């Protein structure tokens, strides 16, 4: 998977907005100002940081050498996933979906309903 493919997938999520974090030289994807993905090159490899439950983050890190704690975000919840590694694209898409859904739970109900067209 490429950074471009991942960004295209993220931007299809309802309410997704893209910005650049200049200090980290990363593209941030947010829904209603809540971060759900950060995309950049890490050690010369395409990567994304995604939020999961601490339990899933630990399990993924144990099973895949291409999933590591994120350097600049809460390491219990945020994992850096290398896009060119052993994790199948379908699992990366699943993790993006789960991270977006978690972000939705953190925004006000009225805003969430507006984003989801309810």
Automatic annotation (TrEMBL):
Annotated coiled-coil segments of the chain: none
InterPro entries given in the database record: YjbR, YjbR-like_sf, YjbR/MT2646/Rv2570-like
Membrane-spanning segments: none
Gene3D superfamilies: 3.90.1150.30
Pfam family, one: YjbR
This protein's name: MmcQ/YjbR family DNA-binding protein
Organism of origin: Trabulsiella odontotermitis
């Amino acid at each position: 998977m490429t950074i471009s493919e991942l960004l295209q997938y993220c931007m299809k999520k309802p309410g997704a907005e893209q910005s650049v974090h200049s200090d980290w030289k990363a593209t941030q994807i947010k829904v209603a100002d809540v971060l759900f993905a950060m995309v950049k090159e890490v050690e010369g490899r395409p990567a994304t940081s995604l939020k999961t439950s601490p339990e899933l983050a630990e399990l993924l890190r144990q099973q895949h050498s291409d999933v590591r704690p994120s350097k600049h975000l809460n390491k219990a919840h945020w994992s850096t996933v290398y896009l060119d590694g052993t994790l199948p694209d379908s699992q990366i898409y699943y993790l993006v979906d789960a991270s977006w859904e978690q972000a939705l739970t953190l925004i006000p109900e009225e805003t969430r309903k507006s984003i989801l067209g309810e």
